[in-house]
Specification:
mainly beta
Amino acid sequence: MHRQLISLLCTLLLAQAQEEASTWNVDEPPGPKRVQIIDVDEGTWISVDISPDGKTVVFDLLGNLYLMPIAGSANPSKITSGMAWDMQPRFSPDGKTIAFTSDRTGKAGHGGNNLWTIQPDGNGLTQVTDEDTHLVNGPTWSMDGDYLVARKHFTSRRSLGAGEMWMYHRSGVEGDAAGGVQLTKKPNEQKDVNEPAFSRDGKFLYYSQDSTPGDTFEYDKDSNKQIYVIKRLDLETGETINLISGPGGACRPTPSHDGKQIAFVRRVGAKTGLHVFDLASGAIRLVNDQLERDMQEAWAIHGVYPAFAWTPDDQSIVLWARGKIRKIAIADGSESVIPFRIQDERQVVEALRTPVKVAEDTFSTRMLRWVRVSPNGRQVVFQALGYLYVRDLPNGSPQRLTSQNDHFEFCPNFSRDGKELVYTTWNDKTLGQCRILDLSTKQSRVITSQPGHYLDPVFSPDGQTIVFRKAGGGLLALPSMVPGSWPLPRQPVRWRSRAGKQTRETPAVR
């Protein structure tokens, strides 16, 4: 019966969660909203594409898609809007449709990155994929314009996971073709696969992959060696080879229109450079080393570098770098800015914040350490925020045992008669000591002669000896003594005069 009730409760909670999820609309989130005016002539991490006739540029900025002439514009046309995040636009081969990635709510009632298409005039919005778990992004068109290939994301047990290449028919959800066909299998659970691009003859699919050794993602990899490589998948035979590799890696493969070259990104020392790979000879040439920093060392589920495009004559490449959209000549690497200015607005949901008071004069601590009850059961001693407190049981108010502020206090323990307390201290400059506190007079005395790291002192049953641990330091605390457990007679430090001078006498600590 008990199990049945639990099962019923779980079913009800799941149904409630599904109902709440089904009513969520990315473009209409709950909570107060405000309008943010924007007026910008540059942007961050902008994906760019050129129409097949070479006259128009499409790009993303702050979650919307814009069109402008390839010469630039002071007023680009906005083709998507709303609070959904739209990005990575790519023209179809005939130029009549633009594929892009969006987290807008789809027909199944859920958001998350999926592929969509739209006409350049902003009409004809169509949902292609309908993933709710393994989200997709980075669309690229097949040469016949009937299919889209994108990266499907697989979340790992550690960090952001890995990717695979999947192909979808452009009719998508409306054409009951949102399931897709798998083209590649993720090499493991943590190494990224990204940035698909079809060869111009349609026979191959190029993509980038993290090729560092092992199955585990590592931070701060050495970009002077090889992190990403560009692979080539033969779509007829299924054979995959490393096409472009070597020091500095290789990512964001972008074939030229004549199919003879592949533009790609590679690290050159501390810089990121635009390179060209000649498919006939295998020669690689650096074109321009002033790109923005690529993301080879990090997770890059939306691409290692933003998408860019060749001009139809294959003489130049249009890409984003250093805040601007730039046209780079393949012959000599010279560049010019394609200017834009966007005067627009965004609707922003106010951030959910909980007021947190910082550095109050008084506050309650909820973490007590080394709680010790007196032998007669009438008091309790504990440490909080670096100092020792005593409290009468059962309902007394905590009171500090000392009034000093020169050091912190730790590890209290009562003597068997309850009249004294032994504890340790710490100061970052003078290190630590063992001390005995007389509970009636609140006077303390030092019983160790050597500064160091002292822990867990206790009285012997007869009260005549103290046993404590000495530690040797650590990553933050410098070593000060040989570690171990040590007995010490409980006599305090004493002073006596010798020939007019004071001499310190103390029991030796061996």
